[in-house]
Amino acid sequence: MAAADRTVQLQQDAYDLLVKEAARRGVEPEALADELLRADLAAAERRDQEAALDALAEFRAGLPPADAVALVREGRAELEARHA
């Protein structure tokens, strides 16, 4: 996928901080902005995934216990009864 240039509007104080930090790191402000955006978005995605897993764990905790072996036996018995 080809890269596309986009414009991001920053408040002047935020832009000044970006330029200062980019200079400290020895990179262009655009490169630093790209790096920071990617890192923040990746962290947000991880937080979303963790929240979904937490919600799933909470949901599963409310379910009654299940005996997987018994469920398989019941399913097999149903299938055998259908084809008998």
Protein model, in words:
This protein has 84 residues and is mainly α. The chain has one domain. It is 74% helix and 0% strand. It is built from 3 helices and no strands. The longest helix has 33 residues. The chain is elongated. It starts with 11 loop residues before the first helix and ends with a helix. The mean pLDDT is 92.
Summarize the structure.
By secondary structure, the chain is an all-alpha fold. It has three helices and no strands.
β-strand amount: under 5%
The number of E-state strands comes to: 0
Q: What distance separates the N and C termini?
A: 55 Å
Mean pLDDT: 92
**Uncertain residue ranges:** none
Note the run of SSEs as H and E. HHH
Compute the number of helices: 3
What best-fitting shape do the alpha-carbon axes yield? Answer: elongated
Which range best describes the helical content: under 10%, 10-25%, 25-40%, 40-55%, 55-70% or over 70%? over 70%
State the secondary-structure class.
mainly alpha
Largest sheet descriptor: none
Count of domain modules: 1
- Rg, please? 26 Å
